[in-house]
Amino acid sequence: MPELPEVEHVVRALRLAIVGRKILAAELKLKRTAPELSARVFNRRLSGSTISAVERRGKHILIQLDSGEVLIVHLRMTGKFVSLATEDSLLPHSHVILYLDDDRRLVYCDMRQFGRMNLVASKRLFKSRELRDLAPEPLSEEFSEDYLAATLKRSKRTLKQVLLDQTKVLGLGNIYAAEALFLARISPFSIASSISRQRVRRLHEAIKQVLREAIDSGSTLKINLSDRNGSYFGSDERFWRVYEREGEPCVNCGTRIRRVVHGGRSTYYCPKCQR
Prior knowledge:
Blueprint: H1 4-18, E1 23-28, H2 39-46, E2 51-57, E3 60-65, E4 69-74, E5 79-85, E6 94-100, E7 104-110, E8 116-121, H3 145-153, H4 159-163, H5 174-184, H6 197-217, E9 258-262, E10 265-269
Antiparallel strand pairs: 1-6, 2-3, 3-4, 4-8, 5-7, 6-7, 9-10
């Protein structure tokens, strides 16, 4: 599942491709992608609208329309957008098609069918079911050291579990939670409420650092919306210090990285640096 840096790069690619474009028609081919909308309503509410902006809230993509509505998109595991010319054949698993006024189609493909869309009025966007309970943006002033300290102090769950909870810490998934904990030199299995203020400070800085690094480097993504065979997932380059490095020497101390299943997810850590 893409995490905040990946979604940020998708947003940037979409801005270049679709902002200012008018939607001539919209086709919802798979009901479960937008379960609260019928295909007829989906087309009626999108058709004739001009895309005025593409933004992000956590892992959600927000496609803003001049009609006063916002198309909220969550890619989940395998969702992706592709930009196709009118003469191009559709890709497998093409579930949503936006016909644009530049003779191109923005197509949403999703092999696993876990991704979701919804249309909401912009005036109630942040009260919508998708966004209302989300934590502060992790690179904003609202995500302060004090906020993180208070959030951790209230939880008896392990630190890794709290970092994956989008209502507590936004934007992290399995990759960047592991990376932040390694950078902060904290065990993922520590109980959140037991973390000292010094460690909270290190973790707060580490979360911001790994996210900024991933955004600046391109993370796992090299987005090309016109690449029919491309994927949002995977890269030949390895950006990570600890994630998916089971059995390899720690970049700090040389101890072999371990992987355990924790909370249903693979958790990577250095048993020496993250005692």
